[in-house]
Structures are given as structure tokens and as C-alpha cells.
Amino acid sequence: MSIQSTSASARKLAFIHTVSGLVSEFGALATEHLPDWKPFAILDESLLRSTIERGSLSHLTKRRLATYVWSAVDAGADAIVVTCSTLGPAVDAIAPLCPVPLFRIDEGMAKAAVEHGNRIGVLATLSTTLVPTVDLLKRQACEAGKNVVIDEVLVQGAFQFLPDGNVEAHDAQIRQALEELSQKVDVIVFAQASMARAVKGMDHSLPVLTSPVLGIENVKRRLGQRKDQVRSRAT
């Protein structure tokens, strides 16, 4: 586990990561979309690795994530984002107890998907991420009062290319699955932030939603709403 920190002068936004390659990406997104916030990162790849090996999210992993959340609070975080969609159910369980706003990165993507259409395709490279993503989409659809049909696809074997650095093979499998699924649905979501790169520069005939940018935009919107609520209570 490693912690990367910044100066303590401004409000602090903590990112909890399980994939090292996402640290710089989310740091840049925070700088672009939340310039008044100072990001810092907590990284522990074993949270995801142990979940993949087990095939489900264990109570131990949930407890370990809670420890990182409180570590971020102790480090001065004014808000926290967990960038691993696999850990989404754990984030939901911890959030009501957290003294600062705690966000799952895929919430913004799920909200946008429900707005785009009634037939939603979900692509994932990990089975442990597919279930929480589908559950989140159903919940968002229920909150929006919409009936949706979800077509889920697991891109078998693609994730195994990443530890070896074979990004091209990983992305190629995702693109092929995307082309096939796009014939059946109104909108497609990528269940993992690590998949977003696969569609950069690619032309596609329907909306393809990924969590990094939509997730940060959602965090910005919700933090703004929270700030407005505090102001209204003060007046």
C-alpha cells in the first residue's frame, strides 16, 4: 500500500485505487474538474486481487476498505472516491458511517446510462464487477422511475492481459465485444474504469459510457449540491 499526498492548504479529495495505472488518470481529472480541491491517492491492488481470486467481495475486504476510508479521513480528506467498481457494494455499506462524503466512481455512469435509453448493455472483464454494476443500474433506474432491460456481457480473458502489459490484446477483445453488443442495445456502459482506454479514438454508433469522467463530474455535482445545502441552512 502506498499513499501519495499534496499540500494541506485546500480541501482534500482522496482517491482509493486498486489499479496503479489509474492513479495519474484520476489525479489529472481532479485537477481539471475540481481545481479547488487537492487530490491524494491511496493504492492497494490486493483489494481487487483477493476479490478476483475469491470470486466475490468478502467481509474481510470490506473491512479493509473501511480501514482505508478512515485512514483517508485521518489524513485530512474532505471527500473520498473509491475508483474500483468491484468494491461498490462495500462503499454503499460504509458511506452512511463515513464522516465525509464518500463516493463510488460508477454512480455517474449509471445515472447517465438510465437517462440515455431503456435497453442498456454492460461490458465487463471481471465477473466480480458485473454483478455490482448491474445492481447499481437497476437501482438508478428504480430511482428514476424507469423500466430498463439490461444485457450483460463478460469479456472472458481480457483482464488477464493487463498484468503482462499486453494492453493491445485487452483493448481488442473489448472492442470486438462492443461491436457485437451495440447491435442489441441503446447505450453501453463499461463496468470498470480500466476499460475506458479501449474506446479512445474509436467511432461507434451509440453512446458508450465509461466511469472516470462521468464519475468525477458526478462527484463535482454532488459536492456542489452539498455546499449549497450548507449555505441554505446557514441563512
Automatic annotation (TrEMBL):
Pfam families documented for this protein: Asp_Glu_race
Transmembrane regions: none
GO molecular function: amino-acid racemase activity
Organism classification: Bacteria, Pseudomonadati, Pseudomonadota, Alphaproteobacteria, Hyphomicrobiales
InterPro entries named among the record's database cross-references: Asp/Glu/hydantoin_racemase, Iso_Racemase_Enz_sf
Gene3D superfamilies for the chain: 3.40.50.12500
Name the UniProt record assigns to this protein: Aspartate racemase
Family to which this protein belongs: Belongs to the HyuE racemase family.
